[in-house]
């Protein structure tokens, strides 16, 4: 009896698929010696991206904007639609991560996939990634400081939240996160495992409490309720802006890519980590989003509150229960900031290893005791603090500095995917690949990145004032201008993209572990 056709196809696919190389052999083939400890298992790699995406932090930070731009209809159905688009981006990135499992991640793969001007492609991708990650760490920890002050004000009504206090609390958070990242990667892995369960259990607690405790909920049809309070007349434009709520949340899944050199079986576990983080975040985030939407009582009053989701908790559950749930939210934000800093540290380490940063020898050194890039950790802590300092005088100034976070990250995501498309059949996939669907998925990913980045740079409120103006284009322009001047002034003569430290046997002799 002949074998079924699908079994024949599966066997042929297994025979033609590239074999997963030994982790160290893969790294040596890319021209790098092993300096970091491989302590991240598959779950740990997933945990870093899942923690950075952080549905609790993302949804609670941006829910208020969604109430203004589109309301429940965009919050719910926009979440579903954008999650699907992000899956395309994650799949395309995962295929590249499998081919180039290195801490350099996006900038390294951009340099390898470019047909010409490899140094320039790698340079711009690396700096966009760096600035985006620094902005993400700053924004997340600043949000955590804001929510900490909201908790203090709920506990002690006489307390008056102050921008200077927010900056001070953010500085303390950054210090603690830097200390945690200074110790072994095993500690970071343990903390990230805890963060996953904190997020999942915390989400369940919030959802169950919002479902069981209130004596009334909105009707099922409320998910289709549409609101446009952006100030713009076009409902379509207002609804499109609301998609940014989900886009803002789904950033940082390149963390799995950056942790490749510390992940066991990175050629498969890094891309799987990216995809699992996106899928789990999409499903759990939708549940949390629905719970908040159906718990709304006074739409206008809650939408105009300083922290709309917190006001929803207070109105639906009472002050005491809301305070307890707010502790879950604050914990999630702190875990998110820690994971952000970990990912940023590895990008700094790799970028410096290839000589692309001032003081590169300093930043890519690794502690002989902890096997972590300690100096890069402290740079990853100081840079966000510099971005946060303008918040001491003006929240608008702070918003202007960190607004490049999402734009910078998604542009950095898009460059290697675009170059992979342009390379065509010249791209050599790793063990985890999309087969013949690779190119179509990459096209959708690039298209979505272009659309979402345009949305992030458009005006988001009307009338335009100093406080309502969207500073993302200015911030992005400043970053690109500095990178361009720097490139033509000196960098192009000394940076040609990812370097190779020698043949595989030569770099194997340089291993420090």
Automatic annotation (TrEMBL):
Top-level taxon of origin: Bacteria
Membrane topology qualifier: Multi-pass membrane protein
RNA-binding: is it a keyword of this entry?
A: no
Instruction: Report keywords, A-Z.
Output: Membrane, Transmembrane, Transmembrane helix, Transport
- This protein's major location comes to membrane
* Parts of the chain that traverse the membrane: 42-65, 77-100, 121-145, 165-184, 196-214, 234-253, 274-296, 316-339, 376-393, 399-419, 440-459, 471-489
Q: Does the keyword NADP apply?
A: no
Subcellular location, record wording: Membrane
Q: What PROSITE patterns does this protein's entry cite? A: AMINO_ACID_PERMEASE_1 (PS00218)
The coiled-coil regions, if any, are: none
Q: Could you identify this protein by its name?
A: Amino acid permease
